[in-house]
Specification:
The chain is of the alpha/beta class. The protein has 6 helices and 9 strands; from the N terminus they run E-H-E-H-E-E-E-E-H-E-H-E-H-E-H. Strands 3-4-2-1-7-8-9 form a 7-stranded parallel beta sheet, with helices on both faces. A two-stranded antiparallel ribbon has the order 5-6.
């Protein structure tokens, strides 16, 4: 396996709103994951046995009651090789970590730092998945992979659409595997997802991200030694498009 560069997620990236303006990166280094009912098991399986040195930052939102004491970070650390935590507001983003939304706060990806927001509930919940997905899409552009797992209703679907609009990838747990297939089915109905598969296959795709260039078909071919060819649309709309599957 090729050596992996270490760099901070989400540095020097402009809001996209459909137009991506970002540095050139060799791989997608931000993975945002959302789940609700039945999500703990799916999250544990997705994040288990990832390489401890993987240079990807993971952000996780799971629907939890606002006054609960979430033990999700400790649950994830039972099988994950990466440290998991409820971050502090303003905490600097570091690769190789799992940041979990704490109860009653939306988890927001900022430029180099994490924000915790007690803004209005979305889909009648806080934390909600859509704020995480939208913030990552706007800040990190094509570097983002969004993953929707088991759950009720459609929280996360609009955010996953935003990730696609900003050049990122959309992964969805196969409804046949999900304990609660409602959310994956909503995503499939509204989005041309890049991969809909069992969690074990999604985990394998994520594990291989650092060895892939940003290519149009995400064919998972080995990166070549030369720099990846990525053309980026200008803020005004001129220039080429990011070479990624929309």
């Amino acid at each position: 396996m090729k050596s992996w560069r270490s760099h901070c997620a989400c540095a020097d990236v402009s809001l996209c709103y459909g137009k991506v303006k970002t540095e050139t990166h060799a791989w997608r280094d931000v993975v945002v994951v959302g789940a609700s009912a039945g999500g703990v098991e799916a999250l544990s399986n997705l994040l288990s046995d990832l390489p401890s040195e993987i240079p990807i930052t993971f952000f996780v939102t799971l629907h939890v009651p606002p006054r609960s004491q979430s033990r999700l970070p400790s649950i994830l650390e039972r099988t994950a090789r990466l440290p998991a935590e409820h971050p502090r507001d303003g905490e600097k983003i570091r690769p190789g970590r799992i940041y979990v939304a704490p109860p009653d706060f939306h988890l927001i990806v900022g430029r180099d730092v994490i924000h915790l927001s007690r803004g209005p509930e979305q889909h009648h919940v806080r934390p909600a998945i859509d704020p995480l997905f939208r913030s990552a899409a706007h800040v990190c552009g094509e570097r983002v992979v969004g993953v929707l797992l088991s759950g009720f209703l459609d929280d996360g679907v609009e955010g996953l659409m935003e990730i696609k609009r900003c050049g990122g990838l959309a992964f969805v747990q196969a409804p046949a595997e999900a304990r609660f297939p409602d959310t994956p089915q909503h995503a499939q109905a509204k989005i041309n997802v890049d991969h809909c598969a069992p969690v074990a296959q999604l985990r394998e795709l994520i594990t291989r991200l650092p060895d892939q260039t940003l290519v149009s078909d995400f064919s998972l071919t080995e990166s070549q030694p030369q720099s990846p060819a990525i053309t980026v649309a200008s803020e005004g709309g001129t220039g080429g498009k990011v070479t990624t599957n929309r």
